[in-house]
Amino acid sequence: MLTLTERFKYAIVAIVLFILLVAIFFGTVELALVVIMQLVDQPLLFFGAEDLVDVFGFVFVIMIGLEILTSIKGYVIGKYQHLRIVYYIAMLAIARQVVLIRLSEVSPLALIGIASIIVALSGGYYIMQRTPVERGGST
User: Fold this and answer.
1) What's the whole-model pTM score?
2) 8 A C-beta contact, residue 60 and residue 100
3) What is the predicted pLDDT for the residue at 18?
4) How far apart are CA 130 and CA 135, in angstroms?
5) Cβ of 124: how many Cβ atoms within 10 Å?
């Protein structure tokens, strides 16, 4: 039997999942519209480099949304643990930043910061993968 707190938690998760589904749906519709508009506006149906970066940005945002959706669903059914969810989403978000980065607009210090985040996430992920997971644990 679920306690009041657990029922509240599952109700909030259900609301968040619904909102996320709506956001992913409309994001996908907007992505399709952007691609169609870019193709119509371009001569010979080619994308420019800046247009491709914008489209990739949209795709990555939708992928992050799908990953969050999958992670929350996995958390609810007990397939994933909290720490793994955080790592997966953080790695996807930093991958988006790296792919979409415009080197001409970013300072060297910001690049060092991004590199540090990647090293820290990689090290943490390595340690997390090598650590055995206990049943019912929160890692």
Assistant:
1) 0.67
2) yes
3) 93
4) 16
5) 15
